[in-house]
Amino acid sequence: MGNEEKKRRELERRVLEKVEQAIASVHNAKDVDQVIVALYSVAVCLFPLHLHSLSGSVDEKYRQELWALEAPSGDDKTEWCNVFYRGAAFRAFARVLLYDVASDWLACFAASARKHVYDVFFLNGCAAEIVQVVVPCLQLSGSGGHDSSAVCLNAERLLVLCLLENDLILQIAREFAGGAQFQDLSHEQLKQAISKVSQLVTSIPDKARLGAPTSLSSHLFFERLTTQLLQGAEEWDMMLVDETAAAEDTHMDGSIRFVGEAFARICRRGSADVLLSEMIPRILGQVRSVLSSNSVLAISEIFDSKPGFRFWLKIMEAVNDSHSVERIAEELLHQLAVQNINDVEGYWILWILFGRIFKRQTPIRFTFVEKFLLWKIFPTCCLRWIIYFAVLECTPNSASLRSYNAHGLSNTVHRLVVAWSRKEFVQSSPIEQQAYVTAALGLCLEKMGKEDLDATKDGLHSILQGISCRLESPVYLIRKMASAIAFVFSKIIDPQNPLYLDDTSREETIDWEFGLATRRKGALTTPVHDGDERTVERENSSSTLSGKQIQKGEENGVGNAAKARRKKESAFTLIDPDEVIDPATINESTFYEDESDHASEDSETSSDSLLQPYDLTDDDADLKRKFSQLVDVVGALRKSDDAEGVEKALDVAEKLIRASPDELKYMAGDLAKTLVQVRCSDVTVEGEEESAEEKRQKAVVALIVTCPLESLDSLNKLLYSPNVDISQRVMILDIMIDAAQELASARILKSEHRPKALISSTSDQPWFMPRNTGPPGAGPWKEISSTGTPLNWSYSYERELPSKAGQIKRGKTRRWSLRTAIQDNQMEWSQNSFPQYAAAFMLPAMQGYDKKRHGVDLLGRDFIVLGKLIYMLGVCIKCAAMHPEASVLASPLLDMLRSRY
Amino acid sequence: MSKRPPPDPVAVLRGHRASVTDASFHPTKNILFTGSTDGELRIWDTVQHRTISSSWVHSAAHGIISVVAGGENRVISQGRDGTIKYWDIGEAGLSRSPLITIKTNSYHFCKLSLLNNPHAEVEPTEVVKNHQESELSGGNMSSTELESDKKVEGSIYVAAAGEDLSVVELWDVNTGEKLIKLPNHSINSTKARGMCMAVKAFLPPESHGYVNVMSGYEDGSMVWWDIRNPASPMTCVKFHSEPVLSLSFDNLCGGGVSGSADEKIVMFTLDPSTGSCLVKKEIILERPGIGGTSIRPDGKIFATAGWDHRVRIYDYRKGNALAILKYHHATCNAVSFSDNSKLMASSSEDTTVALWEIYPPRN
């Protein structure tokens, strides 16, 4: 142990000695070759150099000297090298190199000499040290006897060479990861060293002089820097053998700390956009590859476990500067917005980068849920990502939406709603801000259920307040915001019955950008990486063409040659064959032409009576909707907002029902319910309520008459349903009364008559005798003598017919005679078809009339209905009188009446 | 000054049992051909207003999309069953079976377009044919009898949407051969435009006898092809926001009219020498949807068949409205003018065809 230490001391001494010698000889040098030899004497001890590469650039007389220098063997060289860079030797020597040699001698160095005995010291050594000595040279002031411009020039050249061309930054990152020179530093010291180095590195563009190489300008430099840093971080991640260290969250390796520190400083220096434009393609690529891989692992697990991915989770933590993190997040969102990113990708990028710190650091939480929702303005797609990430804390996949953070959601909605509903906010904040906060609120509300809303502190109140103060606004856009929120809000309350405050827009999906998007997008396209920059430039250069045209032009790359040829042909009009011409611009160009055309023709056509226009008035009376199907009628009646449609439907309903189409049976119940629930007073113009009411009643009566069982079933249900009011109950009973009466006096207007051959040769009876067909039990035909006039051209016959069950007989015979007589007879003929339905009329209505239910209280408040009910029952019994059904129904009716009085 | 009320139809031809999709006048005789969605092709005498013959030429399930008089005694019918049939009209109406049945295998709504002046341009179209022969992989199928036939009849070409619905195909009706596809390469540049909804083949005088085709697509764009360059179109324009449903050009090919599902009719000019197609006038309609347009052969007026049951007449030169003809009580499908400009026929979904005499030429 002691021996080792001693050996090291010894080596240190020898190195210092060597360096001292070299420095002395540089100071005393009279000739450039002497300097080269001196430098070489040090270099040869440290690096594997070949003399041949150098000998050409050194004068003959010094060559011997070069040959004479002895060098340590390979292993010793690395040891020498370590000692040289870690001790004071390098600093001292570098000072000489950077100041004295650079200002006095370097210009005289041959290129190969410069490379092998000068640059070599800065390329192969400890990167962190090198940065620390070279960067201060950039700011050399004139004093000290050095040629400051030469020194600076050289420093710039070295920085470009080292940092940019030889990836020294990457090497620094590696060194911090576990380089020998930082091993014995304490945690605090390491932190300081990292901070110092990253500060120096990121200050380079600022320190560079005006005439410095362009690669040291902040944009290019930071771009290159970011690439190397990211590469370093990835490499660190790949080499991270110690799994536990990775899993242990607080552990911060030097390397990742350095990357984070450098990122923070880049952001502080205002180059977050450059940083992000390097970062986004990498992370996006990885996210997309993971998303498309269909791996069984969740994406979070992949990023947690896969080498090369894990560093993303830590990188923002390493930045360790909430302002920079905020800048990064903001810039990230803006840049992602202009790329084609879906919600899932957007969410995951946010989660990967900010997921950990969002959980742990309050300022970051604040940034996302407060600043980004209320103060900043992002495009709507970003807003959605923010909401998924910071509010709902779940992926945008619908499957996982169930597990969203309900508490966070209602808290956020509370905050948003409070801000949104403040009158001052409506009055004084810019419209973009309002649109953004509205969108944030709306998107949050869209995700809410009813119970979430209930959990939100005075949510309902504030929303209504916000809507009402917006609706008063003279600005259309603000009113539109109110109606959008009202729509979303109403969908929470009752998803079946959305509220449209605005008649013009009926779309189910709301444009949360409120038409402001285009403007914002235009502003956004500027800070993007080179690919997009090109398009932006092109757009600027050809401002008359729309973006669409450019896109089109790019798409149709085929046949360019042909295009060019034709372009030449049509040089005058410059028509691009693949171009989509905007008619508006063309209209403009041909406008004048057109006008003159008109003028010249007017005189011509005024004499030409050929083309005198006819009357051009046009009304759309014939285009109005006509209902010919009951389904359409039901549909129209349900649309209570389309008054005209309801009115029309009511007009035709009775006629259609009376026609008794086949499908009536199946929709009778539905139709009855719909008809009863139509609000006639709402749909008609004032003064015409009566007629609409009448039409409705007639339609329902017709419905009961044509299709009694089905429609009565639903009407009786409605009668005691809590959803109808007294007037509707009374109306139902009225309708039933009318229907019962109509059924009781039903007339059979048409007897069954089929066209039959009047003269039948096959039968044995004379042709004028009526046929023997008829119901079983009919008697034989007998000729009856005509009554009245003796001049009788016709024969009359009669026969006995058995009576049908349940029919009242008005006469005992049917007469067969001339047609008019038949009709007369049959007009007389009526059949009471009510009794068979009497039970369906009466029993359900009698059942449970005395139960007090929600909104139904016949014995108390709604006594009028009870009166009507009893009246209806009475009419029913009357209509069924003289039929067996009456006696059956009488006893329950009497029971009912008795039970209460 | 009170204006004259718009005229009523001079005759209404009833007899179809389903929506009448298309009507076409015979070039010289007083005959009108109409086709309906149940596949019935009727031939009418336009003087006596009677049916001369009626036959089911396409299956009832598919129906007829369009009917075009194809010469002195020929008629072409296009069905939605993927066929185009070429018929001979004899003394007693239609022949029993078609002269040629072309199986296009395309099932769409695009009415075919007969090349507008086949008689005068036999020679150039021959050139077209020779030009295209290299394209035909099946070898030269035209036998000598077809050659002789062609001398009598002239070549009759029709353009229609092809099997790939965004491609326009040009067929020789005499031989039943497919001549060319537009675009003809496998990377279909018009795919993004959607189905081809309307097509018009024409032969501008400047094109030296090479057929030009204008096709209108579902996205409202129109593309102008010169078959010398079938790979890429000459001009693309987009006047409409909805599918282009009909296209018609005047006889000089100096301009035309397009109707679409949106609420405008666009009158445009064509310049074949530069390949430019520019809007001359946009006519905004109250109610959207123009199913058919037709420019009268004398170029004075044009008519549109509207979804709003109305036939509208406009001055073709100035583009101002002249009349709104209300007779049909269902969507109008097509309008057509007779070659002597005296009669106009409108066919409608209400199964009738109305004949109108509107602004008849003075002599």
TrEMBL record, chain A:
InterPro entries reported in the protein's UniProt record: TEL2_C_sf, TEL2_Regulation, TELO2_ARM, Telomere_length_regulation_dom
Keyword Cytoplasm found: yes
Gene Ontology biological-process entries: 'de novo' cotranslational protein folding
Keyword Membrane: no
Ranges where the record places region Disordered: 523-564, 592-614
Domain of life: Eukaryota
Entry keywords, A to Z: Cytoplasm
Gene Ontology, cellular component aspect: cytosol
Ranges where the TELO2 ARM repeat domain occurs: 272-512
Biased segments, Basic and acidic residues type: 529-540
Domain Telomere length regulation protein conserved: 629-740
Subcellular location(s) of the protein: Cytoplasm
Pfam families: TELO2_ARM (PF25320), Telomere_reg-2 (PF10193)
Molecular-function annotations in GO: Hsp90 protein binding; telomeric DNA binding
Family: Belongs to the TEL2 family.
Protein known as: Telomere length regulation protein TEL2 homolog isoform X2
Record organism: Sesamum indicum
UniProtKB/TrEMBL annotation, chain B:
The keyword Repeat is assigned to this record: yes
Any single Pfam family the record assigns to this protein: WD40
Keyword vocabulary terms for this entry: Repeat, WD repeat
SMART domains: WD40 (SM00320)
WD repeats: from-to residues: 13-54, 325-363
Repeat is among the record's keywords: yes
Signal peptide: none
InterPro entries: WD40/YVTN_repeat-like_dom_sf, WD40_PAC1, WD40_repeat_CS, WD40_repeat_dom_sf, WD40_rpt
Protein name as annotated: Protein DECREASED SIZE EXCLUSION LIMIT 1
Source organism per UniProt: Sesamum indicum
